[in-house]
Design goal:
By secondary structure, the protein is α/β, with parallel strands linked by helices. The chain has ten helices and eleven strands. Helices cover 33% and strands 21% of the residues. Helix 4 packs parallel to helix 5.
């Protein structure tokens, strides 16, 4: 079986217990306005252009058969993406490496062999985490990878928004040791506004997942979006009602800004302010007062 992958990160310590290999799949039905991984939205190949690496040699302009590359000083607008057919001729001639393709097709057996090479470093707790994007956008591939790992004694963690068909999720849970569940907003209309989808499937799947496997909630803490006391209290109540004991807070960061520029997209971060340390500490205290264990930055 084949899957399309954005990135593979070895020696990760923030995506589940122990040392893990994290596989980021491409494809996601949500459009969170603060998303730091826009390259994972669509399950297709995409061309990155990194302006900071460009020397202005113009070899790419000459090599492009579609004439889709403009002047070097055009910045994020240099690539006319409606004309680009991803022929990769620009990659072949760019010595500084200003171009690259986001997206790699892997056969499940090929990817499994790659994960197996990391197995000596996993120890007792580490293993494979599948993230995204959204793993439920490629459910058969996710299930097959988890099944292969479990058969080989490798632990599995599903990092998911929970937005997907329960029948797909249920089959994946048969081979899942832990779920990291993203919960953004408890109010449905606010969730639609900021992510583009309803949260009803997410919350229902979250309840059902917590009955099957250990679940930790990952809460992206976005100032003036979901950091109100009302939303945090409702999130705490949801966690306790599901028997979930952990909340991992992930304060907004702007590390994805360069990705937007490299893909010819406008960065969303001009619309958000930086979260103050005191605001994060207040959220931590609220969840602890509700009897929940809390980490900042998803420290396992």
């Amino acid at each position: 079986m084949k899957g399309i992958i954005s990135e593979i990160t070895s020696f990760s310590t923030h995506d589940g217990p122990g040392i893990r290999t994290t596989v980021f799949l491409k494809g996601c039905p949500l459009r969170c306005r603060w998303c730091s991984n826009p390259e994972t939205w669509n399950p297709v190949f995409q061309l990155y252009f990194m302006q900071r690496k460009c020397t202005g040699c113009k070899k790419c302009e000459a090599a492009c058969p579609q004439s889709a590359i403009g002047p070097a000083d055009a910045g994020k607008d240099r690539i006319r993406r409606t004309d680009c057919n991803l022929c990769k001729k620009c990659l072949d001639v760019c010595l500084p490496g200003a171009y690259r393709i986001s997206g790699t097709i892997y056969e499940s057996e090929e990817l499994f062999r790659k994960i197996q090479r990391d197995k000596p470093f996993f120890g007792e707790d580490g293993g494979l985490t599948i993230s995204g994007g959204e793993p439920l956008s490629q459910p058969e591939f996710t299930r097959e990878m988890f099944a292969m790992c479990k058969q080989d004694g490798i632990s599995t963690v599903l990092d998911t928004s929970g937005f997907g068909k329960w029948e797909d999720l249920e089959k994946i849970l048969d081979y899942t040791d832990m779920v990291l569940l993203d919960v953004k907003l408890m109010d449905e209309e606010a969730h639609k506004k900021w992510t583009g989808v309803s949260n009803q499937i997410i919350l229902e799947n979250g309840r059902r997942m917590a009955e099957r496997v250990p679940v930790r909630i990952s809460l992206p803490l976005i100032p003036d979006v979901n950091d109100s006391e009302e939303n945090l209290q409702q999130t705490a109540a949801f966690a306790k009602a599901c028997g979930i004991h952990w909340i991992d807070l992930n304060p907004l960061h702007v590390l994805g800004a360069a990705k937007y520029e490299s893909l010819g997209m406008e960065s969303p971060y001009i619309n958000f302010r930086t979260m103050e340390k005191e605001e994060v500490e207040k959220a931590v205290s609220l969840f602890r007062d509700n009897g929940l264990q809390v980490s900042v930055g998803r420290m396992m």
